[in-house]
Amino acid sequence: MKLIKCHIENFGKLSDFTYDFTDGCNTVCEGNGWGKSTLAAFLRVMLFGFRNEGKRDPLENERKRYSPWQKGVYGGELRFESEGKQYSVRRTFGSKSAEDEFQLTDTKTNLPCSDFTQNLGEELFRIDAGSFERTIFISQNDCETFVTDGINAKIGNLAENTDDINNFETADKRLNDLLNSMSPSRKTGSLRQSKDRITELKTQIRNGQEIQNTMESIDTRKKAAIEEREKLSAELTELQERQKELGIYKDQQAKKEKYLDLRAKMAQRQQTLKEAESYFNGVIPKGEELREKAAVCNQGISVRKAMEIYCLTVEEQAQCKDNFPMVDNARLEEKYAEAQELESLESTIRKNALSGEESRRLEELSGYFAEGMPQEAEIDSVKNAWTNRNEGKSLLQAKEIQRKTLQSIQAQEDARCLREQEEAGKRKKILLLFGILLSLGGFAVILLGQGVIGGVLIVLGIAAVAAALLFTAGRSKVQTGENTELSYLEQEMEELEAQVRIEEEQIDDFCTRWGLREGLELTSWLVELQNKRRDYEALLERQKQAGSDEKTARIAALQKDLQQFFAEYGEVPETQNYLAALHELAGKCRQRQLLLEKQKKYLQQKQKYEALAEQVKNYLMSLQLIPEEHPEEQLAELESHRKDYEKELQEYRRIEQEIKAFEEKEDIPALLALKIPEGEESLESLADEMQVLSERMEERFQTIDSYQKQLSDLQESWDTVENMQEELEALQEKTEERLKQYELLGMTKNLLEQAKSSFTAKYTEPVMQGFRKYYRILTGTECENYQMDANTRLQVIEGNMPRDIGYLSLGNRDLIGICMRLALVEAMYEEQKPFLILDDPFVNLDENRTKGAMRFLTEIAKEYQVIYFTCHGSRE
């Protein structure tokens, strides 16, 4: 069987990738990260499917790990040959196995076929995926191997019926697990646990014999406690009857005391009411009237406070009597506007007035620009011309270098063309001569009677002559093109020089007109000239603004008008700050107006206060009272006494109603005649006796409950003992049966191992021979220190003792694993040889053994189709 071709749609990082396999060794030598291991994994997955699909980690779960990086269809195609017939298998993978698609096609007919199912690898190689990865598929850093059930079955030619060998490890593991779980010596063994439980049950049953005697003793004490509790209950009932009788007397006595207390309170309230009526001289005011007059009084207080606020001082009264004229608001606003205009004009003149330094600067600039002043655009134009002239100069220098280069190249080209022309002339002469000779020969052949051959010779002769002529014309054309490029460059330089001369003439003309001083840099001089021009224009404008005759006349008119206005009101401003003077005049007018309004409000509040005071005075006199200086306090005292009187009257009526209701309900004569019974105990002493009895009864209750609980616990313990006895008998019987089962399982395991060893011993020597063969190919030496046991486990003899190969170095372990895998493959597939997949298995070998590995590859490629992946040329 062999691979023919594979195509990957998308698998891991590989996308739209195709590889054609050949017989022998197919080497894929690419750098790290190219996708070699991904390609090897693709071949394995196409045969056996994904590994570790139940893992959550995407690095362990292959379905997630190789999910396409660039999305798209997940899967591909693999073409292979088996038993002389070629097939194509296509697989498409989803996010889970249920979404996968599988199609097998016969490449000869291109029709689907059913020679293999989705278990392609197992059906093709007759082994499971684990056995495939231990033999045919050798991955990097995983060269070691061990013999699986599938490998044993394939070597023993039992691939068609593997129930007897493929499940050996499963059966052996189950037997081991059962023996360990039942072990009588291990703490976790069920037999050991059963024996421990039997010992524990026997001890607990012996200790449970005393429970019966304890239960009888506690039951006797419980009955005695019940009798004592009943006796205490009878005594408590008798005391409760006596307490009830005494309680009735106490209730009647309390009612009598309550009645006498109510009569005393009623007499006290009558006396208090008489004293209150004497305070009011027999006229008790109404609460609503008192509250109304108190409100009037409070209103009068508020009015009096307002009077105090509006009352004028002596100075304010004098100001009100002064005959100061009031100013009209409209006229005052008009004068405000004139004063603001005046101040604005004076500020403008002060701001635009030139200083001494500025005047000297203006005089200097006037002399400088006496014959005229350049425009801003003209100066900018000269700046641009200077910039263009400098750029043109730089460009001319670059083009000069280019021209010299072209001239040098042209000289070299002319010399070369001259040589070529001389050689071409020679070739042309030869070619012309050859063409003429061919033509003459053609005519001669025609004359001899060979028309076709003669015609061919004539055509060839004419073609040779034409070729010679065309070759010469082509060379002449190339030379002409090269001369044209230099001409264009010289023409551009002439145009650029003309433009530079124009710019320089413009600059020279401007500098001559405006006197560029020697030694000054042109750009700096142009900036200085612009600054002078701008300063001159600004100073001229300020001089014009400061010396306006119209503004001067307006200032004089405004000053005269404002002076006349202030003269009308007897006000003469000390300075010409008319705005401040207007503010002062407006303030005086507003102050006088406020004083007049304040005096008016005072008179209004005074009249209102006198009316309120008269109303309160008349009310107090109606109550036969003399009005005092502060009537609000007098009214508050009246209200307080009135409230006290109302409160006493309500309390008196409440007590009167309570006495009436009590007399209707109770037998008053009988209550008044009630006497204390003689020889009776107090309720307190009876309560103390009852408390003592209750406490003693509670103690008995607790004692009985304690005995009952002990009996219940003992009964449960006794029930437990009886259950233990039953458990002990059943457990002893079950343990004997399981012990026999344990011995039978041990015998079964021994027999199974003997049978397996007998079976595998048949092909141990062929596998060992294959190992020696491949070890000799790879190392060039014999493997004298290795041996193989009946379980096909390889060991190395070191220090005269067999050792596990795990003690060897990583490189030696890889070497032994590779040889062992090939030996197993050779034993498993004697007829139809499978292909081999090697994913850089020699990475851990040293230099000498790497060379042997290359020989090893060459040898096995003679017998097997090998797909070999590596990342280094030394292992190619």
Description:
The structure is a single chain. This protein has 876 residues and is α+β, with helices and mostly antiparallel strands. Among the domains are: 2-145 and 827-875, Rossmann fold (3-Layer(aba) Sandwich); 373-515. 69% of the residues lie in helices and 8% in strands. The chain contains 22 helices and 13 strands. It has helices spanning 36-48, 62-65, 120-125, 129-134, 149-155, 168-182, 190-207, 211-279, 287-310, 314-321, 329-352, 356-368, 376-447, 451-514, 522-546, 549-568, 578-622, 631-665, 668-672, 683-779, 810-828, 847-861; strands at 2-11, 14-20, 25-29, 75-82, 85-92, 101-106, 111-112, 137-138, 786-788, 794-798, 801-804, 836-839, 866-870. Helix 11 runs antiparallel to helix 15, helix 13 (376-447) packs antiparallel against helix 14 (451-514) and helix 20 packs across helix 21 (810-828). The radius of gyration is 67 Å and the shape is flat. Residues 215-242, 479-546, 595-745 form a coiled coil. It comes from Waltera acetigignens. This is Rad50/SbcC-type AAA domain-containing protein.
Structural class by SSE content: alpha+beta
Can you tell me the CATH class of the domain at 2-145 and 827-875? Answer: Alpha Beta
**Main sheet?**
6 strands, antiparallel
The side-by-side strand order for the widest beta sheet comes to 2-1-4-5-6-7
Mean pLDDT: 78
Tell me the fraction of residues in β-strands, as a range: 5-15%
Relative helix content: 55-70%
CATH domain fold name of the domain at 2-145 and 827-875: Rossmann fold
- CA-CA gap between termini: 24 Å
Protein name: Rad50/SbcC-type AAA domain-containing protein
Keywords: Coiled coil, Membrane, Transmembrane, Transmembrane helix
Transmembrane segments: 430-449, 455-473
Domain Rad50/SbcC-type AAA: 5-243
